[in-house]
Automatic annotation (TrEMBL):
The keyword Nucleus does not apply. InterPro entries: MFS, MFS_dom, MFS_Na/Anion_cotransporter, MFS_trans_sf. It holds the Pfam family MFS_1. Its main location: membrane. PROSITE patterns: MFS. The chain crosses the membrane at residues 21-47, 97-117, 124-143, 187-205, 217-236, 285-308, 320-337, 358-377, 383-411, 423-444, 450-471. Residues 44-475 form the Major facilitator superfamily (MFS) profile domain. It is a multi-pass membrane protein. This is Major facilitator superfamily (MFS) profile domain-containing protein. It comes from the Eukaryota.
Length: 498
């Protein structure tokens, strides 16, 4: 069998495509288990028990539903109609603390998750991650009605497992996919995040108003995670050479393009370049970009439903529809951008670094502009304005796939899991920063809290763009390149280890 006979990425015979879909579902399932709380909490909590004093007015003084004006949800009847008639007595600040719980869980494992995925294999690491998330999610309904802090711990446990998803998927991508396919593959498997963040809100909105009630939000996603585990167990291996479902021609093509066996051996034999991974200007440019996008991702995935409810007074079914917009835009845009990027690189029109910086520029400036637009343009009378703003946000956010994300997958193939784990640490710190900022502003009852929150995200994107333009690269770094070991050195190493 000749290597040239290998199936293309989008061929039905391509096992690489099956792997990418399973990676995408892994992202989707684990993110579903986290973001189900973003909208779900609005139907779990009593929406009127902790309404601000400024809007606790006599119902007769409020405009009716048929009025041209809009008004806050401040009575139980309206809350029930709009789908916000929960029973749990959690204040807004308590709710915000709950939403931050997964990020505190991630602090426990974020420093070594990627290292474990590189050393012991991403297959096992990702399986353990999903099992952990399933347990934390399935325990949710039981704990929520009995203990606020017990429920917080279950959400933190979910975060402990989620830390492994990002580096494990990236480590798998470095082993299974040639460099010229990685932008496309990155777009495919990270699309699971957008599918989860967008359609989960729609699904949650339906479950909230169904006879099953809010507990079904947790049980349904835990069940989906179990089904994924079965497919992952039987169809996936750490290395292409170990996979019985892979054709000989595809295996030869992957091995030649990725050096996956050599990279794995290189990881085990060489002195680990911690200093370069942590302090290299190129890796720092990637980490800063991940920090900015991590802040914005948490802002949109976690707090957009609360913003739409508190500022635009949207009922829960409209809230769910609006939430789909940025993520549907991301799914379409990121795959389109990735295909264009890989085509231009494959045909030599641009070098990867220059092309990546073009995409990254559009990404950062587009995200910053959309966040500023959220401050000044929407109101409860013209809530539809949010849709084009969120569409721009989703499209711009996706342009980072051929930019900083391609850099993350390329700069150090033997250590992709470790580099991704450190990037995940930056994402986690950004997520905690975003949740703490909202929590503090909620506690202080700051009148312009959303202006501060969105403006901070815009500023972070501009700063990260400057860092990537100055120091970002999309090529293997010298300290991560495979080095040939001569026979004499190999013999000496054998004597030392014997």
């Amino acid at each position: 069998m000749k290597e040239d006979d290998h199936p293309g990425l989008f061929s039905f015979r391509s096992h690489r495509l099956r792997i990418s879909f399973l990676l995408s579902i892994a992202f989707c399932v684990t993110v579903c288990m986290r973001v189900n709380m973003s909208l779900g909490v609005t139907c779990m909590v009593n929406a009127t028990a902790f309404a601000p004093k400024s809007i606790l007015l006599d119902n007769e003084s409020l405009p009716t539903r048929s009025s041209a004006s809009c008004h806050p949800i401040n009575d139980e009847k309206t809350a029930q109609i709009d789908g916000y008639g929960g029973t749990l007595l959690w204040s807004p600040s308590m709710t915000s603390i709950l939403l931050s719980a997964p990020f505190y869980g991630q602090l426990v494992t974020m420093t070594f998750a990627g290292y474990l995925a590189d050393r012991y294999g991403p297959k096992l690491a990702l399986m353990g991650s999903v099992v952990n998330c399933m347990i934390g999610t399935a325990m949710g309904p039981f704990l929520a009605v009995r203990s606020y802090w017990g429920f917080w711990c279950s959400r933190a446990l979910l975060g402990v497992g989620q830390t492994f998803v990002f580096p494990s998927c990236n480590s798998m991508a470095a082993k299974w996919f040639p460099p010229e396919e990685r932008a496309t593959i990155g777009a495919i498997y990270t699309s699971g995040v957008q599918v989860a963040a967008g359609f989960t809100s729609f699904f949650v909105a339906a479950l909230c108003t169904s006879p099953l009630g809010w507990p079904s939000i947790f049980y349904s996603f835990a069940l989906i995670g179990f089904i994924w585990l079965l497919f992952w167990k039987f169809f996936v291996t750490d290395l292409p050479s170990e996979n019985k479902w892979l054709s000989e021609s595809e295996q030869l093509y992957i091995e030649k393009s990725t050096n996956s066996k050599k990279n794995s051996q290189h990881f085990k034999e060489q002195v680990f370049p911690w200093r370069k991974i942590l302090l290299s200007r190129v890796t720092q440019a990637v980490y800063v970009s991940q920090f900015a996008f991590g802040y914005c991702a948490v802002l949109i995935q976690t707090y957009l439903p609360l913003y739409l409810k508190a500022e635009l007074y949207l009922p829960i079914h409209k809230n769910g529809v609006f939430m789909i917009t940025p993520f549907l835009s991301q799914i379409i845009s990121k795959n389109l951008f990735a295909l264009i990027s890989d085509y231009l690189k494959r045909n030599g029109y641009f070098d990867p670094t220059s092309l990546g910086k073009v995409f990254q520029t559009f990404s950062c400036l587009g995200v910053a502009a959309s966040l500023l637009g959220m401050i000044y343009l929407p109101s409860c009378e013209n809530s539809w304005v949010v849709i084009p703003i969120l569409t721009l946000y989703g499209s711009a956010f996706s342009a980072s796939i051929p930019g900083s994300f391609a850099s993350l997958l390329t700069i150090a193939p033997p250590y992709t899991g470790t580099v991704s784990s450190i990037a995940m640490a930056y994402l986690t710190v950004a997520g905690i920063g975003a949740t703490q900022l909202v929590t503090i502003l909620e506690f202080l009852e700051w009148p312009n809290k959303w202006t501060i929150v969105f403006a901070t995200g815009a500023a972070l994107n501009v700063f990260s763009l400057m860092a990537f333009l100055l120091f970002g690269e999309i090529k293997i770094q010298e300290w991560a390149e495979l080095k040939e070991v001569d026979a004499e050195t190999a013999e000496l190493k054998g004597l030392v280890h014997s």
